[in-house]
Design brief:
Structural class: alpha/beta
Low-confidence stretches: none
Helix content: 25-40%
Largest sheet: 5 strands, parallel
Distance between the termini: 64 Å
CATH class of the largest domain: Alpha Beta
Domain Tetrapyrrole methylase: 6-217
Strand order of the largest sheet: 3-2-6-1-7
GO molecular function: uroporphyrin-III C-methyltransferase activity; uroporphyrinogen-III synthase activity
Number of domains: 4
Enzyme class: transferase
InterPro entries: 4pyrrol_Mease, 4pyrrol_Methylase_sf, 4pyrrol_syn_uPrphyn_synt_sf, 4pyrrol_synth_uPrphyn_synth, 4pyrrole_Mease_sub1, 4pyrrole_Mease_sub2, CobA/CysG_C, Siro_Cobalamin_biosynth
Oligomer: single chain
EC number: 2.1.1.107
Strand content: 15-25%
Radius of gyration: 28 Å
Shape: elongated
């Protein structure tokens, strides 16, 4: 029996990936094929089923990869083949999205479809600029209008007289290129030239820019400032509320570009926290986490785990990868029954909690020296200690414990290797003075980024450099770099807090 295909017409929202609906995300994860337009943020595609076919049919003004009628026919073809299709569009499929046209052709061919609404930029972009489209004391109505009508129409379908005087707030989508005509038509039909207005470019993104003007001055101000599409044009008294309600563009890191050098698997945590503070983030992983050269020492330690008095973890990565191997060896958290556990850092302790274990000891300061000071009073001569860590870690901890008479086994749970992704993008951004700050979360991110940049490391001299803690900062200094920001609490949250404080 042939499988029946189906098309989900999904609105991707205005750009911020977090504004994609849960249903939209679930449909992307289940599709066989995704047919997508030019998206304001390509990270939305990260939720697409990894095995799904991807077909780009993006459209920009006067530059169409595929004509609309051909896109509609493609959807029919794919659904007729029995495939589950995600048709992904920016904004909402029904707000100038041509979703209705695509669905009608599917209907004509007796093929099932479903709409998954998206958050339209007509409301969300002004909201990110602190401009409500309605307000009880200011505006009781709003209208959403296309900024460029179908050029094949002989007569405008826009009721300019009704719009100009009958609606409180007007939101024109894709209106920059036709702004002069839009403003002239509204004024000609009775809207006062001094009506507050605003243009919002790249709304909901860290690159968002808002130009506050008036209806009469809008065109000249756009020419003067060089504002380009994509932008929306909003007209009405509600624009005055921006002074009180602006929230996105007032975030402490808004408008700043940060480079995250953590390994790809870890980068998203710091990226998300920086973006929550308004930053634009460029991920340039300087390291990659890989398996140790030989699992034999780790396997032997896990086999004899009950013989250790203490097991020490120095990172969340170490915990996660230790347990990954432990489970492969047929064991679980019960293997720690006879051990006490020490963890450097709250993130390491949190990862232990995720596996059902609570650290017996966490030093007040998250570095090896403080762990030594805290742990030594609890050891006796001959105490057996297992130190599970990265291959490249410093020897301060094992050397100090051995000097105190402990029997220490050091096993590599993982190793970090140089892997500078997006190096060319970083170099271009540095040359164009488009980077505000580079963050370093370990000594290895410092040394490996410098190794990757080689002769071009001089480009770092005019950039703010941030370290997660004093050990990383010392590595920077040894390599001729000056750390401008150093976290007081040696965690990702501590680093973000230090950056907020610095930029405030």
């Amino acid at each position: 029996m042939n499988k029946t295909g189906k098309v989900y017409l999904i609105g991707a929202g205005p750009g911020d990936p977090g504004l994609l609906t849960l249903k939209g995300r679930d449909c992307l994860a289940a599709c066989d094929v995704v047919v997508y337009d030019r998206l304001a943020d390509p990270r939305i595609l990260s939720w697409v089923n990894p095995e799904a076919e991807r077909i780009y049919v993006g459209k920009a003004s006067s530059n169409h990869v595929m004509k609309q009628e051909d896109i509609s026919k493609l959807l029919v073809k794919l659904a007729a083949e029995g495939k589950t299709v995600a048709r992904l569009k920016g904004g909402d499929s029904f707000v100038f999205g041509r979703g209705g046209e695509e669905a009608l052709l599917l209907k004509e061919n007796n093929l099932p479809f479903e709409f998954v609404p998206g958050i339209t930029s007509a409301i969300s972009v002004p909201e990110y600029a602190g401009i409500p489209v309605t307000h009880r004391k200011v505006a009781a109505s709003f209208a959403v209008i296309t900024g460029h009508e179908d050029p094949s129409r002989e007569k405008s379908g826009i009721n300019w007289k009704g719009l100009a005087t009958g609606v409180d707030t007007l939101v024109f989508l894709m209106g920059v290129e036709n702004l002069k005509n839009i403003a002239a038509k509204l004024i000609e039909n009775g809207r006062p030239a001094d009506t507050p207005a605003a243009l919002i470019r790249w709304g909901t993104h860290p690159e968002q820019r808002t130009l506050v003007t008036t209806l009469g001055n809008a065109y000249e101000d756009v020419v003067r400032t060089g504002m380009k599409p994509p932008a929306i044009f909003i007209v009405g008294e509600v624009v005055k509320l921006r002074d009180s309600l602006s929230w996105f563009e007032t975030k402490p890191l808004f408008g700043k570009t940060f480079v995250v050098t953590r390994a790809r698997a870890q980068a998203s945590v710091l990226t998300e926290k920086l973006e929550m503070e308004g930053a634009r983030v460029m991920e340039v992983p300087a390291i990659r986490i890989t398996d140790p050269d030989d699992f034999a020492p780790l396997d032997a330690a896990q086999k004899n785990l009950a013989s250790y008095d203490w097991v020490i973890f120095t990172s969340a990565n170490g915990v996660d990868l230790f347990f990954d191997r432990l489970l492969q060896n047929g064991k679980d958290a019960r293997a720690f029954a006879n051990c006490k556990i020490a963890a450097i850092g709250s993130a390491t302790a949190d990862m232990l909690n995720a596996y059902g274990l609570t650290a017996d000891l966490i030093p007040a300061s998250y570095k090896a020296e403080d762990l030594v000071d805290t742990l030594l009073p609890q050891l006796h001569k001959g105490s057996k200690v297992l130190l599970a860590r990265a291959k490249e870690a410093r020897n301060v901890l094992p050397d100090s414990l051995k000097a105190a008479g402990a029997d220490v086994d050091v096993v590599a749970v993982y190793q970090t290797v140089s892997d500078c992704e997006n190096k060319e993008e970083l170099v271009d951004a540095l040359k164009n003075k488009a980077v505000d700050c580079i963050t370093f979360t370990s000594s290895s991110t410092v040394t490996n980024l410098l190794k990757a940049l080689d002769s071009e490391k001089e480009l770092l001299k005019d950039v703010t450099l941030a370290a997660i803690g004093p050990i990383t900062a010392k590595t920077m200094e040894k390599n001729g770099l000056k750390p401008t920001v150093c976290a007081e609490t040696y965690t990702i949250d501590g680093l973000v807090e230090a950056l907020n404080k610095f930029y405030r």
